[in-house]
Amino acid sequence: MKNRVATTLSRRWSDNLVAFLFTPETDKWLAALRVGLGLQVAVYALFLRSDWHYLFASTGKGLVSRQLGEAITSFDSPLIPKLGWLVAIGGYTHVGEDGVLSIAWACLLCMGVLLLLGLFSRPAAIIAWFLHLCAAESGGLFAYGADNFMTTGLFYLMLSPLPDRYSLDHQLLKAEPRDPQLLGFWRRVLQVHMCFVYFIGGLSKCLGSGWWNGSNLWRSLTRPPFNLISPDILVRFKYALPILGISICLIELGYPFFIWIRKTRLSWLVCILAMHVAIGLAMGLYLFALVMIVLNLAAFGIGMNNGRVASAKIPASGNAERHVGISGQSALGTSPLHG
Amino acid sequence: MASKRIHAAWFIVHFFLIAAVCFAGVFSLIAEGSTILPPAFDKYARNSELVAAWFLGKQAGAHSPFRRGIATYLHAAGVQTGYTFFAPNVPGYHRLAFELYYEDGHVEYQSPHVSGEAAALRLESLLDRIADDQYEPIREVVVKLLALSVSRDRPYLKKIRATFGAVTPPEISDFENGKGESFQPMFRYDFSLREDKK
Question: Which residues pair with B99 in a beta bridge?
Fold first, then answer.
């Protein structure tokens, strides 16, 4: 009897999980992710244009040493991709280190543009992920949060069912749109990932006294190189700092709960996007702000049903069109987390 | 259906690893005693951090294929570090100053620099990183390489003194009372430049 109940519960749990993971979706979110990450990759390459060789040159030629960063990365695992691999391959074809670094930079910029246009979407996503990972790992000593989010975004993008129907691949090569359930699965992956990001970020901030009295916000905004706003201006708003600090904690901690509820989704998304716009403008963290905005829009913004009943037309592999519910109602039942 | 099962299994493993990385980070902050939680939690947090690290294969030997496999996957997915940015509190920052001694006796003051703002942000990240205890074995090497980058276009340099320290910015009330930031030197290195360099 106990076994039967356990089997039934386990099957129900498994069915609910499958229903949650494979809710059919349109490919609008994927188009947003592709275009957003294409822009991110292009901006990343352009921002580092003048320092690219200086950051990634070998010992004695650059700021620190690419080999040192790669040695630290190799301590974790020698299988992690790095620019040193490309330099070694260049050595076999008589292309020097400078040449390889220039080619890598140019390729990264090209992949960003290809992703923006949606031309050769999947190869572009794979090459962009690989080159960016190589750069992020070789310059691991210089890396910061934006690099991790870019790697994650490109990792999900290259695994997602590209191309989307807004891409040039679809227009020119007549590539077929993919299975809506698979599109739904990869969107779920991105959505759950964002929930982890904000929950952990919010939880760890709540554990620090400085976020409750505003001193952390003051420190964040006055420490170089984030001190774009004069401290004299900040002092004028000192009574708002604790409120803003607490708001950041609550918005981040509440994200994994309120972003799933249809009634609160739009407000929560607007708050999170406003927070990232503020981080970008007030602290100069433009790349970080851009990648977070792109990931949020792709996960919960574009094509989500924010408070109204909607249905989407997804071209099926033939000429016929199928109508599926975007949010909540799926072929497999109602997603347990939708409000 | 088999494809769905494979995808679902990957989803579970993937987010299990992410959860382990994230919670290891949070437990580490608690165990360090840098949170508002009472010290009684420190021991439990340390044990929990060890459990999370065990799931990530960090207790296995450095050459263990299991450990390396997980590390490679985490780096490939960009999830090797948690999401505890600016938490639990925002620390001060660090500064590296060079005193450049020339053969003719004059002294010049410099800091490592890059040309773009995006790279400048990364340089600050490097300085904060090498202040961390876990980077102690490579700290001197990194400082030496930064000194080398400054000395490259200065052929008549004799010696470089590098001073690395922590900067504590003033709190709001201190700032209102006219107090500025304070610099606390942590390490000082002297590098002599050999004749053959010139």
Answer: B109, B161
